[in-house]
Amino acid sequence: SSRVVEIQSQMSERAVELLGLPEDRPCLLLDVGCGSGLSGDYISDEGHYWIGMDISPAMLDVAVEREVEGDLLLADVGHGIPFRPGMFDGCISISAVQWLCNADKKSHSPPKRLYRFFSTLYTALARGSRAVLQLYPENSEQLELITAQAMRAGFTGGMVVDYPNSAKAKKFFLCLFVGASGTLPKGLGTECADGEETHQAKFTNERTRFRNAKGKSVKKSRDWILEKKERRRRQGKEVRADTKYTGRKRRPRF
Q1: Model's pTM, two decimal places?
Q2: Which of 10, 42, 96, 249 has the fewest CB atoms below 10 angstroms from its CB?
Q3: What digits encode the pLDDT tens for the residues 130-157?
Q4: What is the CA angle 163-37-222, rounded to 5?
């Protein structure tokens, strides 16, 4: 449903924001449990490149059908991240990592699978980069298990909780640092005595507005479409030629 898509997009946006990527160059990101590529769309719109991993062939088929810009890999992240060391400038994951806590097969040991995932992810990430994993933990034991295996693998960091006092809007982001430990970002909607919460929310909105003012093309505009096509050409993909009709509104059908 469109509501799910909207929540998914908001969480992708927040995860990428928490990565704190450099603004002056495109980055290569890993999307763990990329599904049909909704987070990837946001990453591409921001001018970055991505590779997505997912365990579901059906979801990846949808991503291919939607012509996402990233490269896709069918794989179980519990077996590890099969990329060369230091390859990625960051990693995001939306609603996926908690699945590693389930033992689907007799041979599956959740702590082992989590450690395999985190240790190989640590290697695949460039020094000084981050992984931001949004997850839906079933209970506090799961959170502790996941966090403990991440730390065992060499990560520093911890849990950023947005809107901790709201049953509906509360979201968990495991924010992990590779190498140099950064300061953990503040969760949205965390109240302070001096009303800092409203200030923080306002700051976020201002920043996104500022980002469009800074010369990013408005989504779905003609310029945005031309930029997207140009990016795809650079990736060696087949793209239709630009014409005067590119980005033009279609007449309503009756």
Answers
A1: 0.75
A2: 249
A3: 999 999 988 989 999 999 999 999 999 9
A4: 95
